[in-house]
Amino acid sequence: IEKILIFKYQELDIVIPNDEKWHTNLLIEGKNRNMISEELEIELREIMGFRHFYRHTYGFMLDIDLLSPLLNKIRNVLLFSNTLNPELSTTLK
Fold first, then answer.
1. Which of 21, 50, 29, 38 has the alpha carbon at shortest distance from 76?
2. Mean pLDDT across the stretch 41-57?
3. C-alpha radius of gyration, the chain, whole number
4. For residue 88, what pLDDT band results from cuts at 50, 70 and 90?
5. Which letter does DSSP use for residue 60 in this model?
6. Which residues belong to any copy of the HepT-like domain (predicted)?
7. How far apart are CA 40 and CA 18, in angstroms?
8. Within 10 A of 26 (CB to CB), how many other CB atoms are there?
9. Angle between helices 38-55 and 64-84 (to 10 degrees)
10. Domain boundaries, the chain
11. Binning pLDDT at 50, 70 and 90, where does residue 62 land?
12. For a Cys staple, 31 with which of 10, 19, 41, 45, CB 3.0–4.6 Å?
């Protein structure tokens, strides 16, 4: 999703500062420009938080009860990416 948003921003000449909060700023800018919904922005932030946690911990510390809600949100993320890039879409049922 990050790369899709980055490509869209480049097409529109939107500059996202390359600082330590660029991931968050990417989502905020997308929400402010109505490229993503507020609901999707919240879900993406949760997934982003998991990614940060996972990259800085070991796999054995993962809790399936915490992961399950995030996995359920992946569908919404994939549906969103398909709206931006329909030629790359996959079949979701």
1. 38
2. 74
3. 14
4. very low
5. G
6. 1-78
7. 22
8. 21
9. 130
10. 2-83
11. low
12. 41
68: amino acid identity, one letter: S
CA angle at 25 for the pair 24 and 30, rounded to the nearest 5°:
105
Report the residue count for the chain.
93
Distance, CA of 27 to CA of 36 (rounded, Å): 8
Place of tokens 């800085």: 56
To which residue do tokens 């402010």 refer?
A: 32
- In this prediction, residue 60 carries a pLDDT of 60
What values do phi and psi take at 17, rounded to 5? -55, 140
pLDDT at 6: 87
Distance CA 16, CA 29 (A): 8
| HSE of 38, CA atoms in CB hemisphere, 13 A | 0
57 in Cβ contact with 67 (< 8 Å): no
Tokens of 24: 């968050």
CA 23/CA 84 separation, integer angstroms:
18
